[in-house]
Amino acid sequence: MGLLSFLTFPLFLSLLWRLIIVNANFPTTLEGPFKPVTVPFDNKTYHGNAIDLPDTDPQVQRTVQGFEPEQVSVSLSSDYDSVWISWITGDSQIGDDITPLDPESVYSVVQYGIEGSQMNYEEVGYSFVYNQLYPFEGLQNYTSGIIHHVRLTGLEPSTLYQYKCGDPYTSAMSDVFHFRTMPPSSPKNYPHRVAVVGDLGLTYNTSTTFSHLLSNHPDLLVLVGGISYADMYLTNGTGSDCCPCSFDESPIHETYQPRWDYWGRFMQPLVANVPTVLVGGKHEIEPQAEDQIFVSYSSRFAFPSEESGSSSSVYYSFNAGGIHFVILNPYTYYDKSSDQYKWLEGDLYNVNRNVTPWLVAVWYPSWYSTFKAQYREAECMRVEMEDLLYEHGVDIVFNGHVHAYERSNRVYNYSLDPCGPVYITVGDGGSREDIAITHADDPDECPDPSTTADLDIGSGFCGFNFTSGPAAGSFCWNRQPEYSAYRESSFGHGILEVKNETHALWSWHRNRDYYETAGDILYIVREPVRCLANQGN
Question: What is the pTM of this model?
Answer without folding.
Answer: 0.94
